[in-house]
Amino acid sequence: MRQFASLEIAVGPVCSGKSTWAMKKYHELCQTKSQAIDYYCFTIEKLAGPKRHSFQARSGVQVEGWYINSLEQIKPERNIVVVDEIQFSTFHFSENIFLEKNVLEYLRADFSKVSMDKEFYFSGLDLDWQDNPFLATMFFMGIADNVHKLTAYCERCDKDASLSEKLTGGEEIFNEGAQYKPICYQCRDQQEKKKKGA
Predict the structure, then answer these.
(1) pLDDT at 52 (0 to 100)
(2) From 2.60.40.10, 1.10.246.130, 3.50.50.60, 3.40.50.300, which CATH number describes the 6-150 domain?
(3) Which residues of the chain have pLDDT under 50?
(4) Residue 89, φ and ψ in degrees, nearest 5
(5) Residue 191 CB: number of other CB atoms within 10 A?
(6) So where are the chain's domains?
């Protein structure tokens, strides 16, 4: 049974404007709604509770909000909530979320604890740098009322890019200190062919 009023989500690769979309949505809602609205951003850093932070997107848009590890850390009194980096809402659950059989059940239960009659706006990565889907993003895309698929510009050929390329940070699923850039399918294919031919 549905427990939330609405869910709108924007997804895409790095540098596709996901955070800008979320922050602009927050400012738009603050101007058009007659109630308080909160802005949150997931982090893989372990937190005891919400951590106050000033966020700024690459576009320069700024928002005051909180870092969180869990959807349960969202203030229960807020009926309109904007959340960025939603792909990490299950990251603390396991070192390898792709091998967990019950991760979606965990996420569904976590979401249901805070979702009663709330209006949500989420943004996040849809795929990791190895082109594996983030399960949290897949889950929310599946139950969303509206999904926006964003693209970036490939830094190799300047065409529309839907993938993310990892430049530094090793082979782990994700490292917040690593560097990434957008890449298109054609350049990714060329890159893989070069690796196989090396």
Answers:
(1) 96
(2) 3.40.50.300
(3) none
(4) -70, -15
(5) 13
(6) 6-150
